[in-house]
Design brief:
The complex is a heterodimer of chains A (163) and B (121). Chain A is of the alpha+beta class. Chain A is built from 5 helices and 6 strands. The longest helix of chain A has 22 residues. Chain B contains 4 helices and 6 strands; from the N terminus they run ββαββαβαβα. Classes of the chains: A alpha+beta (163), B alpha/beta (121).
Chain lengths: 163, 121
């Protein structure tokens, strides 16, 4: 039987305008059929953090890409694992961590995207990483307690300045 | 509601695809399959009408890239029409607007084939 997706608030502080708010943690099975749900939750959280619809949509796309990377690379397509998404409005910035317990994959090992060369060589890998880096202010990867953590950060001030 | 549907119709020698919903790693095979079917039928002038497309992730962009060389090598092209701001923005972020011809409307894209015979850039 398929495990249900679950969302649970963490920390007890009451949210204030412009102040950090409790994180939302969403755990979904490592199936691409859950990417739509991940995207919708991210989009709504980003809008609630004050981003406009367009920016919220792009943030959701970056998280979709990060979760796709986990399913396709860290878990090599296995559908019986878990992907954890931690979404947090930290006041000046919006942070999403995509966590898995799969194989360590170095996404930066993917060469820089050269679109015309990609077309010539029929390559498509690396586009997701490229999109994530273009959309977010920061994309970092670390290994923590036997798990891979991809942290995506978008600063609110950068959006206000038109980035 | 389905996450993606792809309607298809032919206008003379141009095949029009209408993806409705979103294209990501979960739905891309359906989209890819429709492109592939057109190519198998020898139809190399393709317009993707994106008016019903809410967003496209890298998997969908990869599907476009995976087909374009074969299409252009066969004397055709794949052109895009009616992009909403979200999809247009994603294309611009990745520089796809330099690889694909993008038109404001489906009719503009169809006419463009009649005008130049369908040779891609």
């Amino acid at each position: 039987m398929r495990r249900p997706a679950s969302a649970a608030p963490r920390r007890g502080a009451s949210p204030k305008a412009g102040a950090p708010r409790p994180a939302l943690v969403l755990t979904v099975p490592s199936e691409t059929s859950f990417l739509g749900l991940v995207r919708e939750v991210t989009r709504k959280m980003a809008e609630s953090a004050g981003f406009d619809q367009g920016t919220a949509g792009r943030l959701a796309l970056a998280v979709d890409e990060a979760a796709t990377n986990v399913i396709e690379h860290a878990y090599a397509g296995a559908a019986d694992r878990e992907v954890e998404i931690r979404l947090e409005d930290r006041g000046p910035e919006f942070q999403v961590e995509v966590v898995d317990s799969g194989a360590t994959v170095d996404p930066r090992a993917v060469p820089q995207v050269d679109l015309r060369r990609y077309v010539r060589e029929r390559r498509t890998g690396g586009l997701g990483m490229h999109l994530m880096e273009k959309i977010m202010d920061s994309v970092t990867f670390r290994r923590s307690a036997g798990r891979n953590v991809c942290r995506l950060v978008k600063r609110k001030a950068a959006v206000a300045r038109g980035r | 509601m389905s996450e993606l549907t792809v309607d298809k119709r032919d206008v003379e020698d141009v095949t029009l695809l209408y993806p409705k919903g979103f294209i990501n790693a979960h739905t891309v095979r359906l989209f890819e399959g429709e492109i592939r079917e057109a190519l198998q039928q020898g139809r190399f002038k393709i317009v993707v009408n994106c008016s019903g497309l809410s967003y496209i992730a890298s998997a969908g962009l990869g599907a476009l890239m995976g087909a374009i060389e074969e299409i252009r090598g066969s004397g055709g092209d794949l052109r895009l029409a009616s992009l909403n701001d979200t999809v247009r923005n994603i294309f611009e972020i990745l520089g796809f607007n330099h690889l694909y011809r993008i038109y404001p409307s489906e009719m503009d894209a169809i006419v463009s084939f009649a005008r130049d015979g369908g040779t891609g850039s």
